[in-house]
UniProtKB/TrEMBL annotation:
Lineage: Bacteria, Pseudomonadati, Pseudomonadota, Gammaproteobacteria, Lysobacterales
Protein name, per record: Multifunctional fusion protein
Pathway assignment: Sulfur metabolism; hydrogen sulfide biosynthesis; sulfite from sulfate: step 1/3; Sulfur metabolism; hydrogen sulfide biosynthesis; sulfite from sulfate: step 2/3
Catalytic activity: adenosine 5'-phosphosulfate + ATP = 3'-phosphoadenylyl sulfate + ADP + H(+); sulfate + ATP + H(+) = adenosine 5'-phosphosulfate + diphosphate
Domain of life: Bacteria
Enzyme class, UniProt record, top EC level: transferase
CDD domains recorded: APSK, CysN_ATPS, CysN_NodQ_II, CysN_NoDQ_III
Keywords: ATP-binding, GTP-binding, Kinase, Multifunctional enzyme, Nucleotide-binding, Nucleotidyltransferase, Phosphoprotein, Transferase
Quaternary context: Heterodimer composed of CysD, the smaller subunit, and CysN.
InterPro entries on file: APS, APS_kinase_dom, CysN_GTP-bd, CysN_II, CysN_NoDQ_III, G_TR_CS, GTP-eEF1A_C, P-loop_NTPase
Taxonomic source organism: Fulvimonas yonginensis
Length: 634
């Protein structure tokens, strides 16, 4: 690469950026988002606004970001590039979502507008944009009035903490600039917004296409005495009450450029901090004092909310990415069970009991929705009972996490109260959510120590406890083979127990049917029971269809290294249907049984089972022996 040319180019960019920053430094910043249905004129409005302000800073800002990175690596102390690497790793996992942020500015204010393209994934992108915005421009077509989308988007904005809405009643030229139409839409909307807790609504009649009431007042609407859209954006006061919270910073990255330096990099999300202050890392509770606050431009005497810094502590501590550094005097709560709002954004429904990745702050944990309290009808605000959440539905749920986290309610702190859920199979972002409060503090429930532990229980039985997990279609041979395995093990003196779908469904799981959500719960319970039995020192044989990879993988995580063996009883559907030991396939094909696995309910084949048994033409005895060989091999 031609280094000289590159340096010159960069130097040029730096000067331009310095100029830009100086000119705009003193101005306040407004982050907003535009929402509306497909044809309401969102792009026209945004285009018009950018055109009228004649200031587009996309390129300068991209260069600015590049520059700050370069500076970060210059003095060899701090590698901020690592931070960015971390983020791009997330991008590869599909965690981040595509939202284009456009920058523009006028003489009075700087603006960042979240531009959320794409109709299909609109809700998903919108939620991302809304989570950092202070104001939403909600577009309504004057000819159509409020639509379901208008209500849905307003609700999402409200859920994600937006308290100011600019209602842009667009296409006024197409309704003859009628004041009555505008007034009707305005009052309809105020009612909806008030129901959703949004009190600051400014309604503006406009025509984005003709540029009326966008950046200048319209002659055609003399009856309107309010500001133009741009005037309002330039002057509206959106400052949130200064957060009452003390210092909080999620650790995005631990920087170790050399042996002598260890810095915890991240953005301060609340309060402020200075060298000498005592901090606690949560959830571990480790304490230390701040030695230095390092940035790309040198050390700071104090860092406050919004600053991106690396904090060096006085002593070497075991603190990692995802921990939260906080003021010791007023630390956040730590908990593992929450009440939360969840906006579901995936085609496949949210199923209670299924484990998802949860990303909150810089932390990644496993979370399950343990209960859906209710679903919210976005049109009427009514609470309705629900067993699952479908695409674009919002539910008020209880969440259970596998690890405790430091958090704030979303209302108090977006960064430590907002989260996304990620599907563990596809890595797709499937939900956005907001924490309301902790249901139970993690430190209130302790794991009770027992003097006789699992090793002691296993020892007295003279065996290594294990879980043999048989999965396969109905009639594939799970029970027959598991039964033969248990008979042999028993004869050899092993302590065993068999959990069979048909049997457990008569007792513990009597309340469950065969919908996806019931099957998820069925497997969750039986996996927990199997875990207890392994804890008791037994060899447990689990024989359930267990059709979903997610739940089988979840079951696996409950056991120790090598304790769990997945046995795939692989018999083609046609063969199972021919065997039809209980006559169920005949009934399912006749439409008398709904949701029958393999017919109108899916079976996800195991990808890496410990044992893959193809049963056709092989005797039950031989198959059972193979299971025993696998079990006793290690
Ligand atoms: N709709 C439908 N789909 C599948 N199976 C059905 C259904 N209705 C009843 N049965 C009978 O229930 C047994 C499966 O229960 P499981 O608990 O193993 O199922 S699951 O793991 O929750 O999917 C299954 O037993 P097996 O044949 O031993 O697998 C069936 O006998
Ligand atoms: N090689 C085989 N392995 C297991 N079962 C077989 C085999 N060949 C025939 N079968 C028959 O298939 C049926 C399987 O039923 P079952 O064990 O109840 O299946 P599942 O528990 O998977 O629903 C039984 O009637 C069994 O005798």
């Amino acid at each position: 690469m031609d280094m000289e040319a590159m340096d010159q180019g960069t130097a040029g960019a730096v000067t331009a950026i310095d100029d830009y920053l100086q000119r705009h430094e003193s101005k306040s910043l407004l982050r907003f988002i535009t929402c509306g249905s497909v044809d309401d004129g969102k792009s026209t409005l945004l285009g018009r606004l950018l055109y009228d302000t004649k200031l587009l800073f996309d390129d300068q800002l991209a260069a600015l970001e590049g520059e700050s990175l370069r500076h970060g690596t210059q003095n060899g102390e701090l590698d901020f590039a690592l931070l960015v690497d971390g983020l791009s790793a997330e991008r590869e996992q599909g965690i981040t979502i595509d939202v284009a942020y456009r920058f523009f500015s006028t003489d009075r204010r700087k603006f960042i507008v979240a531009d959320c393209p794409g109709h299909e994934q609109y809700t998903r992108n919108m939620a991302t944009g809304a989570s950092t915005a202070d104001l939403a421009v909600v577009l309504v077509d004057a000819r159509k009035g409020l639509l379901t989308q208008t209500r849905r988007h307003t609700y999402i904005c409200s859920l994600l903490g937006i308290r100011h809405v600019l209602l842009a009643v667009n296409k006024m030229d197409l309704v003859g600039y009628a004041q009555s139409t505008f007034k009707r839409i305005e009052s309809d909307y105020r009612l909806v917004a008030a129901q959703m807790g949004i009190e600051q609504v400014t309604a503006i009649p406009l025509s984005a296409l003709r540029g009326e009431n966008v950046s200048s007042r319209s002659q055609a609407m003399g009856w309107y005495g309010g500001p133009s859209l741009l005037e309002h954006l330039e002057t509206v006061q959106v400052e949130r009450a200064t957060s009452k919270l003390g210092f909080r910073m999620p650790v995005q990255w631990v920087c170790r450029p050399n042996q002598n330096f260890r810095g915890y990099a991240g953005q301060v999300v609340a309060g402020s901090i200075a060298p000498g202050d005592e901090v606690v890392a949560l959830p571990s509770g480790v304490r230390s004092r701040v030695a230095r606050i390092v940035t790309a431009d040198g050390d700071l005497p104090r860092a406050s909310a919004g600053d991106a810094v690396a904090i060096q502590l006085e002593d070497e501590r075991d603190i990692s990415r995802g921990d939260v550094l906080a003021a010791t005097a007023s630390p956040p709560q730590v908990a593992d069970q929450f009440a939360a709002h969840v906006l579901w954004m995936d085609q496949a429904a949210l199923l209670p009991g299924r484990p998802y990745w949860m990303k909150i702050g810089a932390r990644l944990v496993t979370a399950q929705v343990t209960e859906i309290k209710h679903r919210v009808d976005v049109n009427t605000q009514e609470k309705r009972p629900a067993k699952r959440l479908e695409l674009n539905e919002v539910g008020y749920c209880n969440l259970g996490l596998d690890h405790a986290i430091a958090f704030e309610s979303y209302e108090d702190c977006r960064e430590l109260g907002g989260f996304i859920l990620i599907d563990r199979q596809t890595n797709a972002t499937v939900a956005a959510g907001t924490l309301a409060f902790a249901l139970r503090r993690a430190d209130n429930i302790h794991w009770q120590h027992t003097d006789v532990d699992r090793a002691a229980r296993a020892r007295i039985k003279g065996q290594a406890p294990a879980c043999l997990w048989f999965t396969g279609l109905s009639g594939s041979g799970k029970s027959t083979i598991a039964n033969a395995v248990e008979r042999r093990l028993h004869a050899m003196g092993y302590h065993t127990y068999m959990l069979d779908g048909d049997n457990v469904r008569h007792g513990l799981n009597r309340d469950l049917g065969f919908t996806e959500e019931d099957r998820v719960e069925n497997i969750r319970r039986v996996a927990e029971v199997a875990r207890l039995m392994v804890d008791a020192g037994l060899i447990v044989l689990v024989s359930f269809i267990s059709p979903f990879r997610s739940e089988r993988n979840m079951a696996r995580t409950l056991f120790g290294e090598g304790e769990f063996r997945e046995v795939f009883v692989d018999t083609p559907l046609e063969v199972c249907a021919q065997r039809d030991p209980k006559g169920l396939y005949a009934k399912a094909r006749a439409g008398q049984i709904k949701n029958f696995t393999g017919i109108d309910s899916p079976y996800e084949r195991p990808e890496r089972p410990e044992l893959h048994l193809q049963t056709q033409g092989v005797s039950v005895d031989e198959l059972a022996q193979r299971v025993i060989d696998t079990l006793l091999a290690n």
